[in-house]
Amino acid sequence: MTLGMISITAGALLGIAAVVCTFVFRAQNRREKQELDAYTERVY
Amino acid sequence: MFKIGDVLNETYRIEGILGAGGGGEVYKAYHLRLKTDVAVKRVKDSVKGQMDNRAEVDVLKKLRHTYLPRIYDFVSDDEDIYTVMDFIPGSNLKQAAAGRGKFDQKQVLKWAVQLSEALTALHSQKPPVIHSDIKPENIMLQPDGDICLIDFNVSLAFDASARKSTGISVGYAPPEQYHSIDMYGYINRLIRTMPRPAPARAAQATPAPQRSASQRPAPVRPAVDPEATEAAFGAQSPVGQTAGSRETVTEAAFGGQGTVGQTAGSGETATEAAFGGQKTVGQSTGIGEAVTEAAFGRKESAAPSGDTGDGQISQKVTEVPRMFTSVRQLAPMDDAMADLLDRVIGAGVDERSDVYSLGATLYYLLSGVKPTARYWEIVPIDKLHLDISEGLAHIINTCMQPDPALRYQNGSELHYALTHILELDSRYKGLQNRRRSRRAMLAAMYAASALLIGSGAALRVREINNSYSTGLLDADALIAEGRYEEAQALAEEQIRTRPDRIGAYEKKLECLYRSGDYDGCIEYGRQVINSPEYRVSTEEDRQTLAEMYYLIGNAYYERGDYDNAARVLESALLYNPDNSRYYRDIALCLAVAGDTDKAREYLDQAVAKGLDEDSVEMIEGEILYQQGEYAEAVGHLKRAISMASSDSLRSRAILLCAGAYRQLGEDYNEEEISFLSQYAGEPGAASALSEQLADVYVSMGRTGDAIGIYRSLTEGSGASFRTWENYAILLETDGQLEEAAGVLNRMLEDYPNRYETYKRLAFLEIDRQGGLPQSERDYTAAAGYAEQAQALYDSTAGDVEMDRLGGLLEDLRASGWLD
Predict the structure, then answer these.
(1) Which helix (H) or strand (E) holds B24?
(2) A17, B374, B581, B687: most buried by Cβ count inside 10 Å?
(3) C-alpha torsion sign, points B760, B762, B766, B769
(4) Nearest Cα to B91, choosing from B129, B136, B32?
(5) What is the CA radius of gyration of chain A?
(6) CB B455 to CB A7 under 8 A?
């Protein structure tokens, strides 16, 4: 396997990981936003 | 003063008094034309003179805002000037707080936003309107729950040129609102010397805890000094306090104008103590608070309020004693704070002063305690363990910074902060930070991914290109070694790797051409050019394509198809018009084809493109040869031979020159012999030239020399069948029959299937028998050779010697020599 192929493979794997993380982070953000909204409603 | 029922300016009927203070009396009136209630406020005498010229009058009349009273008019009678404004029903926030001590954050935040909107409206006027007396008493709580910021008298009386406010509401006023350190120090001294309020009332002044004692955090020193809160500054006479009041609010008005709120139904006791002021106006309406206002700058003595009279402190001050040079004289404090206060006090008010007052008001509403005028003792609200958010605490602390530069700079900035209060909360900040971190992480991952894929792709392309280029170089090396099949296989592999690049196609064509597969070269060349898979995008690609046309043209030339060769070579010029070789070879093709005029045109262009002189001489010789001018052709060709830079051109010139000599005939025999003798040893031309030399010798009768040449040719390896045959014929012609028979027998070994050998043996045997006496003649062997020749001979070949042999045998049979 040439260096070019290794680089392409690593980039593709990292891209897949980034996509997975995108969905995970979205879910986390959504949950935290709901928590913040509840807090805002209570305090402000 | 008006009596109930009086009509002002034939428009406003007085219906009652709402309050009175340093600024003058406030009446509730009825607008006879608009049929609505209004508030009529008498403007203090000191302001009268300024009103005619003040832009604020018009500014205030034009001011429209939900949370500000509308000012309808400024009217005057013989003695006074009156402001006519909206009558705001409800009670002020101080009164509202009196019943509950403090408010929760949601409620206060709503009012804070409304107040900041009102401030924004005031501060955005040209010139800006500085309220300069924001405090709970001047904020009306309307029945619908909204607030209204009242009392513009102070702002009207504001001395724009000196930026000195005429009124001071101690606790709510920022340090810059005090005219001087003397004034500030004097008031502080009064604060310290005021008698303590009754314990019960002091306890009431501190807000009731919202949680049980066990739930409360450790006690923190309150933000205010209850003693100071209940002091009266500069008061000339005792200020009355209505029984049952919860706290005493102290106000000081300097310059005799004071602050008068629209305190309808407030029930405050307002005592105006004038430092040299005219009078003290008190009003007690039963709510039980004592409001003390001090006015500085008046010579006249102030009269005590007749309405108060419940024994609070008041004293008459005609002028502020000059006794302070620094706030350090008041109490031990941090140097930085002391320097700051020394610098700020007396600086004059601006929009930031309203911001401080509003912050102090919010402080009061949330904590239930009034901030002290001793700024170094103010405890930040977040240290009071109140149930308020970090954002609101931060905003209030920012508003209450002693240094104006550290506060919000105007109502607009404060409004922005309040409406974005969530952004100041640590939960919000934490969420935003986590979101930013996640975004940054994702961005980094995507960027790294793109970078890796991009760089990997670039690297891969480079690797493929390197492999391709190396493959072509290897193919070149194989071609140079004459290993055309291997070179062609390598070129085909490169074509499969990068079918979009043209180099490998050209290499395969070269392999086919060099290996002598001219038909294959032409066929493959036409195929790839007519259905190209490659791209021609660079100048190098165009030159490579031109080379492909060049190879195909040369293949046509080798096939003897000179017209097509010239046409294809002309196509090469379309892609590389600067290559002189193309012009040269077109000229050559045209010359060979007989179009010498056009050939000379191309030759001229080739010369113009820098064609080498050897090639020029070669083409000149070729053209002259085609034109039948052999002697001139020989001259050019000999020069081409002498200058030739390549073996191929040299060999070609030698052969053509030999051909020219052959055409020149006997007159040039000696010269031809000399030329051929010189170049007979040239690689690739030896056999042809030697045989031509032998022919010349034969024509000159020098058979022995000719036989010697053939002997030399056949002694070496690689002599052709034709050379052996000519050798045998020459020996037979010279009468050396036995030697001729030996050569022919040798030929039978090397070429057993050639009929010509048997034919020649048949003729030789007939000659030999012809030389014997008739009794000894036997033509049987000759007939046998003839039969074998006939057996191998293809009658369609049209060999006349076979016919002659057949005739001789018929004659021999007819003569009876054969059966």
Answers:
(1) strand B24-31
(2) B374
(3) positive
(4) B136
(5) 19
(6) yes
pLDDT value of position B72: 86
Give backbone dihedrals phi and psi of B48, rounded to 5 degrees, phi first. Answer: -55, -50
Distance CA B415, CA B118 (A): 9
Closest chain A residue to B390, measured at CA: A43
Q: Write the ipTM.
A: 0.96
Residue in A4, A12, A17 closest to B460 by CB? A4
Reading the block at residue B621, the tokens are 């010789």
Q: Is the pLDDT of residue B803 over 60?
A: yes
B185 neighbors B329 (Cβ within 8 angstroms): yes
| CA B459 – CA B463 distance, rounded (Å) | 6
Q: With beta carbons less than 8 A apart as the criterion, state whether B574 and B586 touch.
A: no
Question: Least CA distance to B437: which residue of chain A?
Answer: A25
Please, what sign has the CA dihedral across residues B398, B399, B401, B403?
positive
**Residue B572: is its pLDDT beyond 80?**
yes
- Looking at residue B292, the DSSP 8-state letter turns out to be E
- Token pair in block for residue B575: 């892609």
For residue B162, what pLDDT band results from cuts at 50, 70 and 90? low
Cα torsion for B541, B544, B549, B555, to the nearest 10°? Answer: -160
* Per-residue model confidence (pLDDT) at position B744: 93
CB contact under 8 A, B451 and A6: no
B730/B697 Cα distance (integer angstroms): 11
CB contact A24 to B (< 8 Å): no
For residues A34, A36, A37, A38, the Cα torsion angle rounded to the nearest 10 degrees is 90
Q: Which residue of B has its CA nearest to A41?
A: B106
Look up the pTM and report it: 0.55
Q: How far does A14 lie from chain B, in Å, by closest CA?
A: 5
As given in the structure block, the two tokens for residue B661 are 């000599």
Q: Is the CB of B594 inside 8 Å of chain A's CB atoms?
A: no
Estimate to the nearest angstrom the gap between the alpha carbon of B511 and the chain centroid.
49
DSSP B670: H
SS (H, E, C) B658-703: HHHHHHHCHHHHHHHHHHHHHHCCCCCCHHHHHHHHHHHHHHCCCH
Q: Considering just the CA atoms, what is the radius of gyration of chain B in Å?
A: 64
Taking the C-alpha atoms of residue B784 and residue B430, their distance in angstroms, rounded to an integer, is: 118
In the block, tokens 């050639």 appear at: B754
Neighbours of B144 (CB within 10 A): 8
**Residues across chain A:** 44
**Partners of residue B293 on adjacent β-strands:** B272
Tokens of B594: 């007989």
Q: What is the DSSP letter of B254?
A: S
Per-residue pLDDT at B683: 62
Q: Residue B364 is encoded by which pair of tokens?
A: 């009061």
Q: How far is CA B49 from CA B54, B77, B157, B166, B765, in A?
A: 9, 14, 10, 15, 162
